[in-house]
Amino acid sequence: MKRLILFFCGTLLFFASAILLNRYGNRDLMTVFLTLTLAAPLGYLIAVRASQRGRLLRLREESLRAELLLLKNQINPHFFFNTLNNLYGLAREKSDLAPLMILKLSDMMRFTIYEGRKDQVFLKDEIEYLRNYIELNEIRYREEVEIRFEEEIEDELVRIPPLMFIMLLENAFKHGASTLTEGAFIHIHLRADGTDVAFQVTNNYDPAGTRSKPGIGMINLQRRLALLYPDRHRMTAIAEDGVYTASLQIGAL
Fold it and tell me: CA torsion 18→21→23→26, rounded to 10°?
């Protein structure tokens, strides 16, 4: 409102000055005055529009950052609760595996709390997080699940958003290994060639016990991808003959 009042007052001043110059001044001076006074409001409007656009862009960026942080904080914590329950069982058994499980769980929680809040992390750190998760599940399932993790990494210092692949791996255990009494397998393949990063998880499952709708974790992952990699990601899921394959490919940052 104040800007409109100032603009209106400036316009009145412009016309009053133009009339006085035309009546008592010379034409050259009037021409210069008219040019300057016409350019001033136009420049003011352009500056105001640029300021508004910049403010809107900053607000949008802050909103996207807040949404991304919320999505990362909504990562399903069921794994940590399950691991604590397993740790309790090992402690009661006085198993030698309990200290190892505590160490792995501590590393994962540290990564989730500190690295998980960053915009980007090194691929090697994300791989270590995935390996800790796999080793914890190997302790949990007592080697009853065949787990294979293959890597084709040209540059492990490629930077990617944190916690981008864990949801696909969690689902493989939750809807695969947990639904089978024997013969469960999970095969993981990670490739990074400097231009993109591709992650694939293949697991068998019990078709009668699996869900048809995606959980909140997958919905959050899809939203994060849409925000971070618009038109630069591809995620697919194929279920066939009791085998589920989830793939995610993203452009390297």
Answer: -130
Q: Which residue's entry shows tokens 């904080």?
A: 73
Secondary-structure percent of the chain, ordered helix, strand, coil, rounded to 5: 60, 20, 20
Q: Which residue type does 117 have?
A: R
Q: What are phi and psi of 201, to 5 degrees?
A: -125, 125
Partners of 234 in beta bridges: 249
Q: What is the pTM of this model?
A: 0.71
∠ CA 84-90-93, nearest 5°, is 145
Rounded to an integer, what distance in angstroms lies between the CA atom of residue 149 and that of residue 169?
Answer: 11
Contact 238, 244 (CB under 8 A): yes
Q: How far is CA 246 from CA 170, 218, 234, in A?
A: 11, 11, 11
Question: What is the spatial distance between Cα 191 and Cα 32, in angstroms, rounded to a whole number?
Answer: 67
70-125 tens-digit pLDDT = 556 555 566 677 778 878 888 888 888 888 888 888 888 888 888 877 889 999 99
CA angle, corner 123, sides to 119 and 128, nearest 5?
A: 110
Q: What residues pair up with 188 in beta bridges, in sequence order?
A: 149, 201
Q: What is 118-159 written as a DSSP string?
A: SS-EEHHHHHHHHHHHHHHHHHHHTT-EEEEEEEEES-TT-E
